[in-house]
C-alpha cells in the first residue's frame, strides 16, 4: 500500500486533533498543567519585593518561590506581567492558572476566589525616618502629618487607627503610589507612611540609614496569599500549590526567602486563615 502525502497529512491532522481533545478532556487544571508542562501565573511586576524588574529581568520573592513550586509540581513556571486592574478579570476568564500578586486575604475576596495558604504577613504597619527619635510606637504619630497611598486597604485601616488617637491629627496625605509617599517621608514632608509590613520591611532593608519600621504593627492581623479560581477544576491545582508552600514552610525554604526579601521571617499558618479584614 502506498501512503500518499495527502494521506500522511490527514493522519497527522487526526493525531493532532486527538492530542488536543485529550488536553481538553483532562480531569482538572492540575492535570492540564502537567500535560502541558507549564503553569501560567499572572502578576504585576511593580510590587516590590514580591515582583519587580532589574535590568529587564524579573526578580523578587515570587520568582524564587514559584521556581520551587514548579520543581515540586514538575512544571515550568511562566509569568505574565499585567496591570493589576486586569489581573483578576483575566483569572475569571481562565487566561492563566493563578494570580501571583499576591493579595491580602480579605473577606470580600474570599467570597469570590480561593486563596493559597499564606506566604507572608500583610498586617499594616508604619514606616518612619530612621532619624525620627520621637516615634517609637504607633501611637506616637498623634497630631502629626502622615501619608499613605490612595484608594487602598492600607489607607482604610490607617484612617480607622488615626481616629482612635488623642487630639487632632491632620488628614492623611494621599498619594497615587507608595513610592511617592516614601519620597515625601524621606524629604520630611510626612513623619510616617502606612503600608503592609513586608513592603515597608523591604524598603527599610534597602535604605536602613533612611527608613525604619515602627513596631508593633497597628493593623488587624492579615496575610498575603496567591489567588485561584473557586471551582472544582481548580481545586486539585490549588491543593498541590498549597502542599508545595507548606513543604517549603516546614523545611525552611519559605522563611529563608522571606528573610532575603523582607529582612525578616514571618510565622505564617499552614492553612488559609479566616480573614480579619
UniProtKB/TrEMBL annotation:
Organism encoding this protein: Muricoccus vinaceus
Name of the featured protein: Transporter substrate-binding domain-containing protein
Cross-referenced InterPro entries: Solute-binding_3/MltF_N
The keyword Signal is annotated on this UniProt entry: yes
Coiled-coil annotated residue ranges, if any: none
Keywords: Signal
Solute-binding protein family 3/N-terminal domain boundaries: 38-265
Claim: ATP-binding is one of the keywords in the record: no
Amino acid at each position: 500500500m502506498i501512503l500518499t502525502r495527502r494521506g500522511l497529512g490527514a493522519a497527522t491532522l487526526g493525531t493532532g486533533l486527538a492530542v488536543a481533545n485529550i488536553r481538553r478532556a483532562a480531569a482538572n487544571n492540575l492535570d492540564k498543567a502537567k500535560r502541558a508542562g507549564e503553569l501560567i501565573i499572572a502578576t504585576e511586576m511593580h510590587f516590590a519585593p514580591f515582583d519587580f524588574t532589574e535590568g529587564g529581568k524579573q526578580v523578587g520573592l515570587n520568582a524564587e518561590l514559584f521556581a520551587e513550586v514548579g520543581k515540586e509540581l514538575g512544571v515550568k513556571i511562566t509569568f505574565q506581567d499585567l496591570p493589576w486592574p486586569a489581573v483578576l478579570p483575566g483569572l475569571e476568564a481562565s487566561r492563566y492558572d493563578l494570580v501571583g500578586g499576591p493579595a491580602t486575604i480579605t473577606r470580600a475576596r474570599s467570597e469570590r476566589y480561593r486563596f493559597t495558604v499564606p506566604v507572608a504577613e500583610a498586617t499594616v504597619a508604619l514606616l518612619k525616618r530612621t532619624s525620627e527619635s520621637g516615634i517609637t510606637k504607633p501611637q506616637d504619630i498623634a497630631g502629626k502629618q502622615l501619608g499613605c497611598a490612595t484608594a487602598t486597604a492600607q489607607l482604610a485601616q490607617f484612617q480607622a487607627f488615626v481616629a482612635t488617637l488623642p487630639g487632632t491629627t491632620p488628614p492623611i496625605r494621599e498619594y497615587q503610589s507608595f513610592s511617592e509617599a516614601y519620597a515625601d517621608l524621606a524629604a520630611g514632608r510626612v513623619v510616617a507612611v502606612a503600608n503592609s509590613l513586608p513592603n515597608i520591611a523591604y524598603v527599610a532593608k534597602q535604605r536602613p540609614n533612611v527608613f525604619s519600621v515602627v513596631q508593633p504593627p497597628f493593623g488587624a492581623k492579615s496575610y498575603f496569599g496567591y489567588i485561584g479560581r473557586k471551582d472544582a477544576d481548580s481545586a486539585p491545582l490549588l491543593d498541590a500549590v498549597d502542599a508545595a508552600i507548606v513543604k517549603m514552610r516546614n523545611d525552611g525554604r519559605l522563611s529563608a526567602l522571606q528573610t532575603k526579601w523582607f529582612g525578616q521571617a514571618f510565622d505564617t499558618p499552614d492553612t488559609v486563615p479566616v480573614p480579619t479584614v
